[in-house]
Amino acid sequence: MKKIMRIVGLMMAVLWMGMNVNAQTSESKLKLGDPLPQFTLNSEVYGKVTPADLKGKVVLVSLFATWCGPCQKELAEVEKTLYPSYKGNKDFRLLVIGREHTDADLKKYNERKKFTFPLYPDPKREVFSLFADQSIPRAYLFDKEGKLVYSASGYSPEEFQQLLKAIEKALK
C-alpha cells in the first residue's frame, strides 16, 4: 500500500510540475494597463507600421505561426467574423504577425489560406519577444489610448467571443 501511495504521490507531483511549467511558459510580458510596446513591422507587401501609425486607434495584435493548429482555427475565425466586421472601421487596426516567418513564408502560406487581412513578418521574434517568450496564438487588444485592455493565449471559441466583446467595448 505504501508503494502505491508513493507512486500516486510521485504522479501528482509530476502532474503539478507540468501544469506549473505550462503556466509559466504561457505568461505574457504585458499586464492590463500596460502601453503598446515600441516596435516596427516591415512588410514588402503592406509597408511599415509603428505605434505612431496606430495612435488613437483600437489595435488588435495577433501573434501566430503557420504550423500552429490553434492559430489556424483562430485565423479562420478572424477571416470569417472579426475582419469583415472591423476592416472598414477607421478607429480599428488589426496586426496579424507571423512569428519566425518572412514575407516570402507568409506569401506562400496565404496563397493557400486566401486571408484578406494583412500578415506581417517577424522573422527573428523581435516583435513577439516584446509580448511573450512562448506560446501561440496570442491576442493583445489595446484601446484608443494605447493601453492593454484584453489579452489571451491559446484559442477557444469562448475566448474568441470574449475578444469580440472587448473590441466592441474598446471602440465605444
Automatic annotation (TrEMBL):
<protein>
    <submittedName>
        <fullName>Redoxin family protein</fullName>
    </submittedName>
</protein>
<keyword id="KW-0676">Redox-active center</keyword>
<keyword id="KW-0732">Signal</keyword>
<dbReference type="Pfam" id="PF00578">
    <property type="entry name" value="AhpC-TSA"/>
</dbReference>
<feature type="domain" description="Thioredoxin">
    <location>
        <begin position="30"/>
        <end position="169"/>
    </location>
</feature>
<dbReference type="InterPro" id="IPR036249">
    <property type="entry name" value="Thioredoxin-like_sf"/>
</dbReference>
<dbReference type="InterPro" id="IPR017937">
    <property type="entry name" value="Thioredoxin_CS"/>
</dbReference>
<dbReference type="InterPro" id="IPR013766">
    <property type="entry name" value="Thioredoxin_domain"/>
</dbReference>
<dbReference type="GO" id="GO:0016209">
    <property type="term" value="F:antioxidant activity"/>
</dbReference>
<dbReference type="GO" id="GO:0016491">
    <property type="term" value="F:oxidoreductase activity"/>
</dbReference>
<dbReference type="InterPro" id="IPR000866">
    <property type="entry name" value="AhpC/TSA"/>
</dbReference>
<dbReference type="InterPro" id="IPR050553">
    <property type="entry name" value="Thioredoxin_ResA/DsbE_sf"/>
</dbReference>
<feature type="signal peptide">
    <location>
        <begin position="1"/>
        <end position="23"/>
    </location>
</feature>
